[in-house]
């Protein structure tokens, strides 16, 4: 067994790679802009006080191959599988985020549409065991009112029309899922998608939701945070390490009941979110923008299907926020010393 993780040194990808190192599963890490030291640091910080585990992780790092890869280049993608013919599983996370897509639609389509099709072709051509890719909660559109009240948890089979969408990114995810189903039906391959909500944690470096890092990391480091929406804005949140665990478990499971899975998460208002931070960092300084009543995201997603499929329940919001704060502080200490 060997994994390929595309986007493997990105925000979620790096955590997936660390998760595989912990399991001692061989991995090829591919990214257009490799951030190898960042990925290593996540693992080394986590086990800095455990010499035995740290030594094991360091050995996994030494055995890992890091490669630069543009997934929109079919020849380059195919060459990865020719070079490493023992790759059996893929977690595909190489994707341009919303702001990047809106800034350059041609590049966005090249990576997000053509790049995805290239990966689907690899599943067929190289007889891979499983490919799991990141879809998104944006597949459900930009407003929870399309599904009723905020208490309703959106399920995987709920429908959203194009009229209810705001992000081109979300519509691209819809096409990715539609295309994947065609491959499953016509080629008999094993492909699955997961639809994360707002993924929070330390280390998010790009994209239109940097606030999903800053809300806890800034207070942890004694900095003020400004959230670009009202205190009443509601979103669904899940910790990045839990998303990584979900990706790995879903990719490893021999048989799957479904194609698409919500990641679940905790539905809270911005005020409730920051109170969670303040319970851990009492001197946290933060403010909201009351001119922006809500984000262009749905508010609550049902994660029961995925929990049942892989036997894993994400940690509480408080535990996730605490983990992010501890990591941010540990990273700052390491930088200082």
TrEMBL record:
Q: What is this protein called?
A: NAD-dependent epimerase/dehydratase domain-containing protein
Keyword 4Fe-4S in the entry? The reply is no
Q: Which SUPFAM superfamilies does the record match to this protein?
A: NAD(P)-binding Rossmann-fold domains
The record's section on InterPro entries has: Epimerase_deHydtase, NAD(P)-bd_dom_sf
Q: What is the lineage of its organism?
A: Bacteria, Pseudomonadati, Bacteroidota, Sphingobacteriia, Sphingobacteriales
Alphabetic keyword roster: Carbohydrate metabolism, NADP
Q: What is the top-level taxon of the source organism?
A: Bacteria
Domain (NAD-dependent epimerase/dehydratase) ranges: 4-255
């Amino acid at each position: 067994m060997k994994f390929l993780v595309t986007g493997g040194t990105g925000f979620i990808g790096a955590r997936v790679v660390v998760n595989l190192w912990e399991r001692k599963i061989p991995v090829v890490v591919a990214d257009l802009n490799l951030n190898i030291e960042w990925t290593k640091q996540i693992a080394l910080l986590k086990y800095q006080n455990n010499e035995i585990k740290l030594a094991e992780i360091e050995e996994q790092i030494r055995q890992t191959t890091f490669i630069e890869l543009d997934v929109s280049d079919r020849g380059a993608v195919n060459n990865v599988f020719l070079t490493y013919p023992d790759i059996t599983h893929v977690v595909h996370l190489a994707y341009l985020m919303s702001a990047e897509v809106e800034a350059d639609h041609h590049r966005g389509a090249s990576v997000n549409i053509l790049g995805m099709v290239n990966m689907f072709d690899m599943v067929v051509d190289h007889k891979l065991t499983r490919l799991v890719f990141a879809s998104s909660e944006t597949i459900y559109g930009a407003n929870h009112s399309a599904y009723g009240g905020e208490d309703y948890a959106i399920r995987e089979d709920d429908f959203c029309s194009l009229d209810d969408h705001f992000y081109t990114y979300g519509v691209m995810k819809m096409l990715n899922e539609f295309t994947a189903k065609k491959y499953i039906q016509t080629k008999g391959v094993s492909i699955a998608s997961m639809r994360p909500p707002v993924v929070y944690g330390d280390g998010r470096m790009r994209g239109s939701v940097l606030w999903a890092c800053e809300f806890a990391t800034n207070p942890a480091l004694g900095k003020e945070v400004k959230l670009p929406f009202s205190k009443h804005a509601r979103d669904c949140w899940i910790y990045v390490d839990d998303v990584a665990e979900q990706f790995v478990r879903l990719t490893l499971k021999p048989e799957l009941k479904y194609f698409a899975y919500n990641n679940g998460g905790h539905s809270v208002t911005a005020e409730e979110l920051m109170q969670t931070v303040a319970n851990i960092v009492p001197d946290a300084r933060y403010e909201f923008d009351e001119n922006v009543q809500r984000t262009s995201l749905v508010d609550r997603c049902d994660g029961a299907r995925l929990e049942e499929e892989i036997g894993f329940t994400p940690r509480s919001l408080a535990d996730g926020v605490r983990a992010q704060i501890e990591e941010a502080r540990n990273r700052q200490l390491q930088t200082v010393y």
